Request: fold
Amino acid sequence: MTKRLDFIASLINKDDKVIDIGTDHGYLLILLYNKGIKCMGTDIHQKALDSALNNLKEYHLDKEIPLVLTDGLNNIKVDDYNTLVIAGMGYNTIKHILTKTDKLNSINKIIVQSNNDYDKLRLLFNKLEYKIDKEYIIMDKKHLYHIISYLKGKEVLTKEEILFGKYNKEYQKYYQQDLEKLKEILKNIPDSHQKIILDIKEKINVLEKYIL
Ligand SMILES: C[S@@+](CC[C@H](N)C(=O)[O-])C[C@H]1O[C@@H](n2cnc3c(N)ncnc32)[C@H](O)[C@@H]1O
Reply:
């Protein structure tokens, strides 16, 4: 198990009934089941599900936790669940999973950990009418992970919030790191790439406001 998965499990409450989409090794399922939470896992790759099944067997949970080979929520009776976890994937896959389904009605909560494009991700969830409950940045084995907990509902996000999430003073040092990275990138972009330069400058402006 990892600090990242432990953290995701800590965001799940007793009343949540969870589908872990792209469960892979199934470790999150084991953590959730041991907390008394109803859960099931899906994955698009048989090899990943075989690995989940082996791990569930090791904990004698293979009869307790359903696993389904499928793309996202296809072929799944979603009504018995109210929460999704989608972790360890890129934005495009997450977008594919959430937009190629009409089964989000019963889903009140989504915990998402994308590997990239957090701004596009915030826009996508906003469009799907999920609002940010809380956004976290955690460090696990020298990697930074953004984990966002969403609840069903509409919200208006500012441009700043779309780019970097809701301001949180706990994350000052990460804003600072992002700012330094962007300034470094800016130095190496040729003048001919004006659009990219303007985008980066906009991000730098936001971060400078976020840093006290
Ligand atoms: C890097 S693993 C992440 C595993 C686990 N969720 C975690 O956070 O540790 C990504 C998993 O997502 C699965 N996956 C990718 N696209 C998927 C889709 N459309 N539907 C279901 N699973 C998918 C992959 O097969 C892979 O097992």
